[in-house]
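Morning. Coffee machine broken again, so started the prediction first thing and wrote up yesterday's gels while waiting. Chain of 162 residues, entered below exactly as on the submission form.
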Amino acid sequence: MTASSTVRLQREPFDAAAEAALLTRGRTDVGALVTFTGICRGSEAGETIAALTLEHYPGMAEAEIQRHVAEAIGRWPLLGVTVIHRYGRIVPGEDIVMVATTSSHREAAFAAAEFLMDYLKTRAPFWKQVEKTDGKIWVEAKATDDAAAGRWSTSGGRHAAE
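Came back before lunch.
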């Protein structure tokens, strides 16, 4: 059976519990559901954040994320994947992103969810601007995020067989 997948980029908030329920409704082959929801923090390095603004190229961003979802489905025995990423102005406390994966067993669901989040954090075509009390700044990539994503390269990183 081919894994189902959903990729949505949207301005509006989403209901993580409802989205997760859609992946398991009526399924008796699912033994694991892993979800991750990223939430906008109110501070970074001790500084107050008023909001984040996320920008993307419509069409291109969805296709690129779908390509990585397909890679995850090829690497792990997944039954379903949902990726929802918001764009626009997001204030502290609001959800930014959700990744949900299902599989017959937890190992595959956990690994695939982590793989997808590492990709979204480092390589997805989004641009993030932080709004602080003293102005707005564009966020640079972090070396720690790049290192986390590097674990998944096929030349020495984690593989589907693990």
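Residues 155-162 have pLDDT under 50 and may be disordered. Going to sketch it on the whiteboard this afternoon.
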